[in-house]
Structures are given as structure tokens and as C-alpha cells.
Amino acid sequence: MKVLFFLIAIICSLSCQRKSQKSIVEKDIPIWYENKPDLFYQLISKKSKQLKLDKLENGFDSLQIRIWYDFALSNKDKLLILKYKNSKWKGFYYSLNVEWNAYKLTNKVKKARKFEVQPKSGWESFITKIFENKIESLPNMKDINGLVDRWSDGKTYSIEIATKSKYRFYKYHLPEKFLEFEEVKNMTEILKVIESEFGIKR
User: Fold this and answer.
1) pLDDT, tens digit, for every residue of 117-133?
2) Which of the chain's termini has less CB crowding within 10 Å, N or C?
3) How far from the centroid of its chain's Cα atoms is residue 151's Cα?
4) What 8-state DSSP symbol labels residue 176?
């Protein structure tokens, strides 16, 4: 019962009020330049299509979270998908081999391995920990007041969250370099919890 109330609160906080029978999905996607969506959003959208994943921009009933791991100058990416549907949690881990084209700013999935996974301490404990660190409401790193990122490459973590009526995308680049910011500490804690629970290394 406790878990159920907790999840209802999460989903309500992410979802806007239904304006009609046919729900409109509210989208929160950072802008890159010339009014284009964030580059990493574009890249993961293409990878999602190649992997034949749910199109989260159309909404998801009840809650889906994706954490994408992108390692600069490497052809190895990772993806963790957390789905809450029909009152049950499921987790899926993807190990990806990708081909990066720096000129076209594209990366192509060459090989993907998919595994169903479960957190070591159980779903209730794991979900509580990541929501205590505000995974649903953290700002995009570039929007944090006073934070200036001058690093040109390195690890980037992109987060997608979708409910029936809302979709969010945000990302953090080399969060371990900016631990003086509370929001970055939260992101780092989320990554630590994922590593501890699923063995997915940062």
C-alpha cells in the first residue's frame, strides 16, 4: 500500500491535468541552437528508433524512465529502462555498440544486447532512493545557476521521463566535476545507486 501511494504521488507530480479525453503530452526538451532540440536528445531519439523502443514523446502509461550512458571517444553506450505499468516495475539493461560520425553528428547502433534486470535491494527501496534524489524534477545541467561547463568531452548521462501526459529530457555532463552544486550531487547519487543496485558502472 505504501508503494502504491508513493507511486501515485510521483505520477501526479509529473503529470499535468488532462485537458480532454484525448490527452495532450506536455514536452520539456532543452534547446540547442537555432531553436533545435538538444543534440543528445536528437541522438537518443535516433537510437530509440533503431532499438524499436516506445516513443516516449507520445506519453507512457503509467511511468517510464530511461538513463542513457554516453562515453565520448568510445563506441560503447549503455541504457537502463525502468517501466511501471499495471502496478508492476520492470527493468531492462542494454549494452550498445555504436558508430559515431563526428562530421554528421550521428551515431548508429551496430549491436545491442538486452537483459531484464532487477535491483538487488528490491524495487521499493531502489525507487525510493532515486526519487529522494529528485530524478523526476532535476533541472537540465546547463540551466543550473552559476554552473559553467568548459569540458569538451567526457561522459554524458541523459534522462528521459514519461507519463501519460508529460515527457521530460535533461542531461548531465561529467557531474563528478561539479559537486559544489546540490542538483549535481543528486544526479551523482542516482548514478551511484544504479551502480550499486544493477552493477552498471559510471
Assistant:
1) 999 999 999 999 999 99
2) N
3) 21
4) G
